[in-house]
Amino acid sequence: MRIVSIVGARPEFVQVAVLSGELRRNHEEILIHTGQHYDAGMSDRFFQELDIPAPDVNLGIEPQAPSAQTGSMLKGLAEAIRRLDADLVIVRGDTNSTLAGAIVAKQLLLPLGHVEAGMRSYDRTMPEEINRVVTDHLADLQFVTDDAARDRLVAEGVTKGIHVCGDVMYDLFLRARERALESPPPDLRAALREPYVLLTLHRAENTDDRERLAAIVAGFRNAPLRVIFPLHPRTQARLREFNIDLPPAVLATPPLGYLEIVALECGARTIFTDSGGVQREAYFAATPCVTLRDTTEWTNTVEAGWNRLVGANSNAIAGFLADPPAPAVAHPPLFGDGNAARRIAEVLETPETAAIVAEARATRRARGYAAASER
User: Is 173 within the bounds of a domain?
Assistant: First the structure.
């Protein structure tokens, strides 16, 4: 098959690092980068560091408001995918790139696979929640991390094409951890000799709301230990725009590569984040996590006792800095066994998938679409 894989943001780059290798054993993969993460530190570096195949198409979508950005992606992806004569489109997670890729695939009558399907925060004020719900209800193949994600889909009436595979991000974490620990960020080695916490912050709900951003920063005002804070370009711009100064204990750094982040996650006393990917990586690293959101789609980490939700509550943040959350006694295997990418590739070899692709090809021919060549 000829498979079009769509990526645009950090978690998607991480997934490609392991999944592309499995897909390319028996298929032709064409990688489209929407450009959603446009900063070199957030995009180019991941491709180089993780040896991700270079994108075959880079749409270079400029940073815009979410609706405008998604609209630009729809136009660019439709033009690109029409030219590529594809058999199947794969999207990942819950980004604007995911939503745009899903819509374009179905408009072009192409089968759609969704990696990391079935996640829910049940907070429709989050753009990411809208993206994943719509994508799940469009997809033909749902690759879920665990049984709970499968059950959520079934409860919504999505009952076909669900495959419990584990988390591709866990696959890469297991492979990269030893290498990451051998080479911590050179500029931070002095800081890492003392206990520290890690902070990441990038979601629009936090960074574009001056009061929430100021409240989160205020929570670190009297931090009793070093706070290492890799700055997302959006966050850096909003701190300047809102004239918010970081407290003395906070050490801001440029965006870091995947291996550097993994090293910091493994060594941190606590991780404070609003990132879905970092919440998972905190669990992989067995590091307690404090999530700077009111809801999370990774409820299993909360239920397991490794993740706490505090939103933008300054006092709660300060409390967890002064008295770090203790690791839970149990650390169950919530995200599979490190073989998710292989399982996803195996699903693509099944008669079920072959039938989905063949039916879509026949429909496209009947409606005058240029069908993919037999391969």
Answer: no
